[in-house]
Amino acid sequence: MERKHKSRGPGRLILPLWATALLVSLAMILAGCDTTDRMSTFDAEGPVSLLQLNVFYVTLWVSLGIFVVVGSLLVFTIFRFRAPLDLPRDAELPPQTHGNAALEITLTVISVALLIVIAVPTVQGIFKTNIMPVSEDAVVVNVTGYQWWWLFEYPKEKVRTSNELVIPIGKPVILNLRTADVIHSFWVPKLAGKVDLIPGQYNQLWMQADRGGWYYGQCAEFCGESHANMRFRVQAVYDQDFKQWANRQRQTQVAPAGGLALEGYNTFMKGPKVGQSCSSCHTIKGTPANGVLGPDLTHFASRQTLGAGMLPRNDQTIHEWLTDLNGVKPGNKMLDAHLDLTDREVDALTAYLDTLN
Fold it and tell me: Which of 155, 220, 269, 278 has its Cα between 20 and 30 A from that of 296?
């Protein structure tokens, strides 16, 4: 009986399943190689990240060379020495050998040499990145990770801020890393690699920005419900601008003279209801607010973001944050306060926060 085949239509191409999977995998791999991404490790902007990138390239090219040579020999061997299709099942095996001593020694020496090529820059890089620079110009910052925000303290400058780290261009920055709760990981891809913040342990990391601008950071260790929302930013500025910034950060705040901002001040300090005081969790230097559970808000209005880098800071996003805490950042600790603010209270708090320059 003659079989009838369905026509697939002119120009229609159906790829086998393995080919489709290969193309999808290739597309996903190439998507991760975008050097223009704001958190790309291929766009190194400091000596630490550049050193790590160079070690990566050495390992990549050596591994790729091994893959090409071994893969080519494997393919050649498969096709050159494959058995004929008409070979009888009871055919005798070809002569068996036990290898070639000279060839094996040569391959072993080559393998050891390639491992040394990878090992030398790797070991050098480990020592260079783990030994903190000894320099009078070095800026020291104590970093504490919380669920889910970052505290930055500059002991020499006597500055305390949150979620936005400001550093001078061209100077090494030594970061003392600790956590207040669970394991976190500090990572600014364009400036340095990842280092974990582990309970009961102090780790260190140093980095340097060779060019001014904003650099984006992220917690790189799963730490709970809002791990993906535990972001921060690093701003590299000229040394004079850094000193001016530090001087402004040391200034304290006073209560507003009146109006809607004063209403917001009172709401912040006393809370809309008993037990809901913002000042019990946040600090605003110069006022009774001295809480440590939440970010320091002393100079909140001078920052670019809120919610640990989740939103750009403006009146609209402040309203969004105060009225939809879980929607903006699931599981954040402010939910424990059960905020139930009226529109007037939200407007007043926003007006007060806008005064914190």
Answer: 220
